[in-house]
Amino acid sequence: SFLSRPLLLLLSAFNHAIPPASALETVDETSRSMARELLSKMSQFENHPASWNTLAAVMEESFGVQGTTQILNENYHEILQERHHDHARQKALRWLSHEDQTSLIYSADDSNGNSRNSQSENDNNINNSTKILTEVQHEHHLLQRYALATIYFATSGTSESSSSWTSCAASPSNTPCESDTSRYLSPSTHLQWEGINGNKDKVVTWLDLSSRNLTSNYFLPMEVTLLAPWLQLLWLSENPYLEAGNNLPEWMGDFGNLISLSMYRTGLAGPLPDSLYELSKLTSLRLYKNRFSGRLLEEIGDKLSNLKWLWIHENEFTGVVPSSIGNLVQLEGLTLHGNRFNVLSVDNAVNEEESDEGEGAQENLKGNVLPREVCALRKKKLVHLWGDCEDGSLEWIENGDSGGSESKSETKGYYKVLEGVRACSCCTKCFPRKVETKSH
Questions:
Q1: Cβ neighbours of residue 306 closer than 8 Å, sequence gap 6 or more
Q2: What phi and psi values does residue 417 have, to the nearest 5 degrees?
Q3: Helices and strands in the chain, H and E counts
Q4: What integer pLDDT is reported at residue 397 of this predicted model?
């Protein structure tokens, strides 16, 4: 229960930075009644993710619902960032309370004691698979529908024609979609919305929002954790305007059932949260072509033992490639090029017996970016191992006079790859590092 955590209430402090709920939207009593119902269902959920405690406090404050949820002092920064999504969660609550007939039919009696089940005239708009929900399934249904609507509004989706989404936005006049039942916020079951799949218990297990032009400076709202107990696949790739401030939130670690996490070619940056290494069921982690930085922790090879695909190329990772990656014996694909990993000494490189290149493989190897433990995976299941070529492997060749300019971008010339020089004798593909070299 949310009431069981000890604590220090800090709402007044962050209200100076984020406008209170009343300054954003007017939350009417019907919406507040729905908010109380959502919070009640969250509090009754056994073994709920840790982030729900913080989310409940944020929702209470955003909706102007008097509650007793207390907030840990160390949650202050997390809560402060989450308040940036207040407008989206209030829009989602209003939609759930007044417009979403699917939720209204199955919701509890309203504040005046009138059963919402009486709105039978809307039955024709609702998919039959939604109408046979059990009581438990409906509890999950309501929380997930609220979560998906909040995600939609928080990433610049609207019910108007001005949505930034490029497919299956709520407005039929705005974006293409296979059918109107596949649109977000449609009256059909959300398991029919594009990019969403569920299981026999009618809970969301797959959420694919790739290539939607999601637009947010603060990643997804914390409401996405309402899907965490069941979610196995989360794909957010090909959304260049999806950002997360300085780093991904720690609540990413709540998705303990995730098998596939894909966030390549987005606007995401900063170090990976420590909690990401707790997703022990992951078989596929694709984070390439972002601006992630910092060191990879040794835990990557100790806790993510089920990984088959680890694609993290073209980021800004630094430090050494963890030797613990050599423990990932299930790996079939590993891409590391285009980062800023340190070069190891020749002593740490593979020897000739370990290399696939045969005699003389070490002659031109001045430094290796991969520890021998990682190279040894080539003898197991690793088929695709992509890494950087050696520092200084590109030689700048000028054509004509540079005119005294010191910038290579202002000169006429080209890079030449030096023959026979590699920094990864065990890689199946080698990519030259584009580093500064001496002009000739």
A1: 280, 281, 282, 283, 330
A2: -80, 125
A3: 11, 14
A4: 76
Q: Give the CA dihedral 361, 367, 372, 374, nearest 10 degrees.
A: -110
> Distance between CA atoms of 203 and 197, rounded to whole angstroms?
8
Residue 155 backbone phi and psi in degrees, to 5: -110, 30
Q: Report yes or no: 283 and 260 within 8 Å, Cβ to Cβ.
A: yes
Residues 359-411: tens digit of each pLDDT:
333 433 445 678 999 999 999 999 999 988 765 666 677 765 444 434 444 45
Q: Which two tokens stand for residue 104?
A: 């209204």
Neighbour count for residue 230 (Cβ, 10 Å)? 17
- Whether 258 and 232 have beta carbons less than 8 Å apart is answered as yes
Give the C-alpha separation, 146 to 139, whole Å.
11
User: pLDDT grade, residue 188 (50/70/90)?
Assistant: confident
Torsion of CA 70, 73, 76, 79, to 10 degrees: -30
Amino acid (1-letter code) at residue 42 = M
Task: Decide: pTM greater than 0.85.
Answer: no
Distance CA 195, CA 165 (A): 13
User: How far apart (Å, rounded) are the C-alpha atoms in residues 371 and 347?
Assistant: 10
Contact 313, 285 (CB under 8 A): no
184, with CB counted inside 10 A (0-12, 13-18, 19+), is buried
Give the up-direction half-sphere exposure of residue 58: CA atoms within 13 A in the CB hemisphere.
25
